[in-house]
Amino acid sequence: MKKIILKPGKEQSVKRYHPWIFSGAISRKESSLAEGDPVVVYSAQGELLGTGHYHSGSIAVRLIASAGDWPDNRLWKDRLERALMLRKRCGLAGSSHTNAYRLVNAEGDGMPGMIIDYYNGTAVMQAHTIGMHRVRDQVNAELHNVMGEGLKTVYYRGAKGLVKQSDKPDLAGYLFPPGGDAATNSPGSSGGGGDLCSAGNGAEGFVNVSRIDNIIKEYGNMFIVDWERGQKTGFFLDQRENRKLLEQYSGGKNVLNMFGYSGGFSVYALRGGAMKVVTVDSSAAAVEMAGKNVNLNFENDKRHVAVCDDVFDYFKNSNEKYDVVVADPPAFAKGTRAVKNALQAYRRLNSKAIEKVGKGGLLFTFSCSQVVSREQFRQAVYSAAILSGREIRILHQLSQPADHPVSIYHPEGEYLKGLVLHVF
Description:
Elements: E1 2-6, H1 12-15, E2 20-22, E3 26-29, E4 38-42, E5 48-54, E6 59-66, H2 73-89, E7 100-105, E8 114-119, E9 122-127, H3 130-134, H4 136-147, E10 153-157, H5 162-165, E11 172-175, E12 206-207, E13 215-218, E14 221-224, H6 240-248, E15 254-258, H7 264-271, E16 276-281, H8 284-297, E17 304-308, H9 311-317, E18 322-327, H10 339-356, E19 357-367, H11 374-388, E20 392-398, E21 417-423
Parallel strand pairs: 1-4, 9-10, 15-16, 15-18, 16-17, 18-19
Antiparallel strand pairs: 1-3, 2-6, 4-5, 5-6, 7-8, 8-9, 10-11, 11-12, 13-14, 19-21, 20-21
Helix pairs in contact: 2-4, 6-7, 7-8, 10-11
């Protein structure tokens, strides 16, 4: 196994159990190291610190195992078993009202660079590093061992950016489900017949799978999930509890859902008894999916209006006020260099959103930018509140749910921040 030696004193963060080693902490490394290679890390004094995957970026090593261990099938099985046990304790795995949840949340579950979301029998695996991409077949094998008959199939999709780093052109497809039958409903369809869906070009490790069941249940609400073409793994599971909270505040209200994507917040608002719900998104495909999800739960319900428009154009062209406004934008900052511009964008968005809230109404506002801290986001919202000149109170401070756990040693894993504001 290839070695990496740290500079003197740089072992302290590892001894505090932080899973990242930055490139500036490295004194020496073997010249033959390639992206995703397994490495063993030593201190300057020769102390064995741990093992992980090497990467050429600013985060040079993501540690996976403690000193003396190497991530093999046994370790993946252990991590997956622990992850599944936690979801059972959270009341998700095996629930009668919810059959979709995050099974593996990267560092939060001891598998840095790996996300696995479970959708009613289908696991969607997404690697964010070449190291995890290279062990996807091992993880897949142990996933079947751990999940048993509850797992029908596994869909793999590499994160953006992996294509450039990988020697394989096709990073998406269905991994073979040993002993399983993957014939149910086709992603993107409404059930029944439908065209067969292909696993790309038959890349090594993938199989052709037809008609996968893609309707999930969340607190009794039904949603179509498109894990092949949708954002992330197909659905934003991290907002589940926040959607449920919105339901409690929606009775008899007019609700505006900005950046509505597939209509998750809109469906909960309608079930909560909203008088009117407007879903706005700049993507025509997202607006269409939102309409399908609303119709799946509330057939031909005239309370819902779907609008394909840029959010800021909608703000400019509409004079209507709302009792409840939801602002759940995509990440405004992908890296630390973009934080300043992101904070300006959050200030602008929340300033416009507050203008849309009627007297005594509520604003549900969020940031999913990992590099923007909770305090930075709150400061941006505070600046927007000052500009409004209105009386504003914080009713709830929101985060990601229990199936998106954060390691106490890796605070960077707390990416979702939210506030519920009472605007008078």
